[in-house]
Amino acid sequence: MTTIPSGRPRDLRDEAVPPETAAPEVPVVVRKEAEPSGSPRSLIIGYVFAVIGALTFSSKAIFIKLAYAEGVGVEALLALRMMLSLPVYLIVGALSLRDRRRRGEGLPGFGLFAKAVLIGVLGYWVAMYLDFLGLDLIPAQLNVLILMTYPLFVVIFGALFFRFPVQVRAVVAFTISYVGLAVIFYGKLGTTDGDVALGAGLVLGSAICFALYVLFAREIIGRMGPRLFTCVTMIAVAVLAIAGFVVSEPVSALAITPAGWGYAILLAVVATIAPTFLMNAALQHITAQASSTIGMLSPVATILLAAIVLGEVLGTRDMIGAVLVIGGVGWFTLSGRK
């Protein structure tokens, strides 16, 4: 974990997983943040990686919506996404274990592995499942705005469970962001059959679960290392997602259209694996603050893609609400890193 310089008050976000995950979906696989070289070439490379990473991650909700439109079910899409991603995490996990042995650190104990699996299953898998369920009911634009408020829940639950002080700016940011969500939500009510409320509730539950995942993962990440921890949790999540599909759905559920398979592959490769390593590569050239700033492009890109690709309406009320949500969370995230 990154050492917090003495003389600076401890910030809750310094204790959590890397902040570049703008939504509860893609933990960043990193060993530690490298010191940026500062050369123009290095900075340009870092910014390019960060921008592409943010843009690829922003496509997640779009590919999910497109797959649903092809008749792919929630359980099937979850299983396909994790099944296609699993080989990458197995390889990276094996390399991480090899590196630990080379450094003479030895393997983590069984208890540590068990805790990582438990945290991944109860936190990340539940968050992902609720997110997928919610996306079946609400627009991608509303989905991404609700999800990106999870850092505010990190502060709230950090105060409740870990006795971290509640920061004034967190309360202000929380208020601004949820006023924005209320503006958007009010505009959606009455235009559908009532699924918006249920879908928003599911996605809010996803944000809450991911916030708890971030908090309870702190200690394990510090002892296991972020790269190995990410791989262990994602492998456990993949096994659970695949097992859940086998138990709950017939094999015929995988008899989907070629387009459905294509969207599932894009979801796994473009919106899951690619941003994981692009954001990691960016951190080798630019600071975490710069990467976080560029990461704010992700929800904006999702909103625009949803309007262009999915045909979702982007009215004045939606734009005002989006500005409030992104502004509130962005100000909170970036103000603590100056």
UniProtKB/TrEMBL annotation:
Pfam name, any one: EamA
Topological type in the membrane: Multi-pass membrane protein
Q: State the residue spans of region: Disordered.
A: 1-21
Keywords, A to Z, come to: Membrane, Transmembrane, Transmembrane helix
GO CC: one term? Answer: membrane
* InterPro entries found in the cross-reference section: AA-Vitamin_Transporters (IPR050638), EamA_dom (IPR000620), EmrE-like (IPR037185)
The subcellular localization recorded is: Membrane
* TM spans (from-to): 44-64, 76-97, 109-130, 142-164, 171-190, 196-216, 228-248, 260-282, 294-313, 319-336
Q: Which residues form the EamA domain?
A: 45-185, 198-331
Query: What family is it from?
Result: Belongs to the EamA transporter family.
Protein name, per record: DMT family transporter
* Organism this protein belongs to: Microbaculum marinisediminis
Q: What is the lineage of its organism?
A: Bacteria, Pseudomonadati, Pseudomonadota, Alphaproteobacteria, Hyphomicrobiales
